[in-house]
Amino acid sequence: MSEVIKNTIDTIYDRRSIRKYTDKPVNPDLVQEVLRAGLYAPSGMNKQPWHFVVFDTKEGVQKIKEMHPYASSLATAPVCIMVCGDTALEMAPGFYQVDCSAAIENMLLAANALGLDTCWMGIYPWEEVMENFSKTFSLPENVKPFALIALGYGAVKLERPKRNDESKIHYNKW
Questions:
Q1: Alpha-carbon dihedral sign for residues 72, 54, 154, 5
Q2: What is the C-alpha separation between 142 and 72, in angstroms, rounded?
Q3: How many structural domains are present in the chain?
Q4: Residue 172 belongs to a domain
Q5: How far apart are the first and last CA of the chain?
Q6: CATH number, domain at 99?
Q7: Looking at the domain assignment, is residue 66 inside a domain?
Q8: Confidence grade of residue 157 (pLDDT, cut at 50, 70, 90)
């Protein structure tokens, strides 16, 4: 196996959800690279129905934390990216969720490859939470808040778990 392939596979296997971050700031160039990875995600009919709202001030990140019932990781994260789906751009109803998920996974893996840590926190499908984010940030009616990504340098390093459950794999039939 080539070194490039091994590094790619290791990035996938080693990515963890980190919920506590150091106070080390994240270079804006690294944030841009993570966002760019999201822009390169596949999407139905290449519609790219995503928008990314970056919060990179302590006040902005804390405001997001207070709005989400499960965003404790934002207590220490220096950056938060809100991923939104644009229903006017999705291939068909319900596809922005699939497409935004692909963009998020690209961003999580890119962040890991860049030495950053992340935690993905869903907003969709909690109608009340979605509505609160939409109103607070004056999102256009066709733009739906989908998820949050905490981004920073983890205060802890988690080991790669063992995920070898072969019963989850099926060939040619159930």
A1: positive
A2: 28
A3: 1
A4: no
A5: 31
A6: 3.40.109.10
A7: yes
A8: confident
Q: Which domain range does residue 65 map to?
A: 14-155
Mean pLDDT within 122-129: 97
H-assigned helices in 40-125:
58-67, 95-113
The pair of structure tokens assigned to 141 is 């009616």
Q: Read off the tokens for 132.
A: 């609160």
2: enclosing H helix or E strand: none
- Residue 171 covered by a domain: no
Ranges 47-51, 76-80, 87-91, 158-162: which has the least confidence: 158-162
Contact 82, 55 (CB under 8 A): yes
Residue 150 phi, psi dihedral angles, 5° rounding:
-80, 140
What one-letter code names the amino acid at 64? I
What does pLDDT average to over the chain?
96
| pLDDT score for 83 | 98
d(CA 11, CA 69): 29
Q: Are 108 and 120 in contact (CB under 8 A)?
A: yes
Nearest to 15 by CA among 116, 130, 155: 116
pLDDT tier, 58 (very low <50, low <70, confident <90, very high otherwise): very high
Take residue 172 and report the two structure tokens written for it: 């040619």
> 35, 106 in Cβ contact below 8 A?
no
